[in-house]
Amino acid sequence: MAVLLCAAVAVAVTMAAVAAASVRVSVDERLQRVMTPWLQADDASSGVHWTGADCDVSTRLDKHNVLWIFADTLLGYWNGAQRQRMAPPGTKMPHSSVAVHNTSSDRVRYAWRGGADPTHAESLYSPKWQREEGPAFWPYTVLPRDTCADAAVCAIGGRIEYGGGDSVFGFRSNGSHVGCFVFADARRSPLSWRQRWWHVPHTGITARNAEVEFNNGAYVHADGHVYQFGYYRPKPDDGAHTVQTLMRVERSAWCMGNFSAAQYWVRSDAAPAGGTWYRDGRGGAPPVARLAPVWPDFVAEVSVVYSPVLRRFVVPFVDFAGTRLRIRTARAITGPWEYTYDDAYALPPPFNDTAQFFCYAVKVHDAYSSVAADNRVHTLSVSFVCNAYDIFTLYKPDYRAVYTPQLVRVELRRGDD
CB of 77 within 8 A of CB of 41? Predict the structure, then answer.
């Protein structure tokens, strides 16, 4: 009884400390200015430009350069008079592109394959199974460059299959993959970087038509593991029965693409409110029916950080078709996760027009985040992106900010101890 009482007191103290903390969110005006593509050019005479993308993730390359990685990418030019993006006839959409931000000069260099002719544009990521009309690789998260010994930049994402038509939802994920850029000098063009690939075993559409993925997000833990967030659905697109779950792999094995000793977070009779780690021992498939949820609802793209100020893990997110930034926190990466800041930030117009737009892909950018010297304020650089239900809306006047990174600063402040 005394042990239970002590545990209850410890939880109460922790929750009180988090509740006493505060959050303040504001537009990151400087970084937003840097990552606003139309400030580079306003007319067709200046050539073809990167005009938008989603799945925006970043990682530091070296002291002066930060790499940004994007999924489906819009190319074209800006009509400054009408405040809108334009696309020449026949322009193709690369399924991935990158940008290198030099933080000393604030110059941003975008890159995709195919040169300056947008009718020949190609994706920068190029796994052997990728085709122009699909399947294609979408990068959802990127690990720090020091994760692996060879300093490769590795992104985790999905093999995306397209169903055709103009719907922005005409696709499905069928397999989790890791794509790594390997290079020695970040100053060289990303087009010259070597790529290496591996598939995350037992992911994709199963023989029983279930859907299992571990590509929503990742975290390199101090315990020596790479954690990958994912989900299980009994049937593809069965959102009502989606279980958001977790796997982990020892870091050195992960860097070799070796998932034979992967562990999965599963339900346990001994821990009915949480879960336990399960390993097949033979590299077999996870017991999908036993996969345990890390939180009750589904978030398509997860960005996890640890805050030394709150002494908790932090996940900012926006519900699908939601209009507010919310923040979960947890003492352990496996949870339990609480909605510590349920109304941290109201998305401004036009992004809160849920009849036309939906916002998603909330990502934390460590290269631009910081912790105050007194360890009382943790400032997170956070981006989100919004898309239109009708893709042609992206080309209407005054909507050029839609489908480009929107940057905010999230200040997590410790309360009185």
Answer: yes
pTM score, two decimals? Answer: 0.92
Confidence of residue 3 (pLDDT cuts 50, 70, 90): very low
Determine the Cα–Cα distance for residues 364 and 59; give it in Å rounded to an integer. Answer: 10
Distance CA 29, CA 49 (A): 22
Q: Which two tokens stand for residue 282?
A: 């033979």
3-state secondary structure (DSSP) of residue 73: strand
Closest CA to 160 of 184, 186, 131, 134: 134
Strand segments (E) across 150-309: 153-162, 171-182, 194-199, 204-205, 211-220, 225-233, 243-250, 263-266, 276-278, 305-307
User: What DSSP string runs through 152-187?
Assistant: -EEEEEEEEEE--SS-TT-EEEEEEEEEEEE-S-TT
Burial class (CB in 10 A: 0-12, 13-18, 19+), 6: exposed
SS3 (DSSP) at 330: strand
CA dihedral 53, 71, 360, 42 (to 10 degrees): -10
pLDDT at 396: 95
Give the pLDDT of residue 364. Answer: 98
Contact (Cβ atoms closer than 8 angstroms) between residue 323 and residue 346: yes
Query: Half-sphere exposure of 209 toward its Cβ, with a 13 Å CA cutoff?
Result: 4
Q: Note the pLDDT tens digit of each residue in 378-401.
A: 999 999 999 999 999 999 999 999
The CA distances from residue 39 to 49, 140, 242, 366, in Å, are 11, 26, 41, 24
pLDDT tier at 11, thresholds 50, 70, 90: very low
What CA–CA distances, in Å, run from 384 to 22, 290, 373?
Answer: 21, 32, 28
- Angstrom distances, CA of residue 385 to CA of 57, 297, 333, 352: 11, 20, 25, 12
pLDDT tens digits for range 163-180: 755 567 888 899 999 999
Q: What is the mean pLDDT of the chain?
A: 90
Q: What residues does 157 pair with on adjacent strands?
A: 139, 177
Tokens of 39: 């400030």
Mean pLDDT of 48-58: 95
Of 32, 79, 48, nearest to 398 by C-alpha is 79
* Rounded distance between C-alpha atoms, residue 160 and residue 350, angstroms: 28
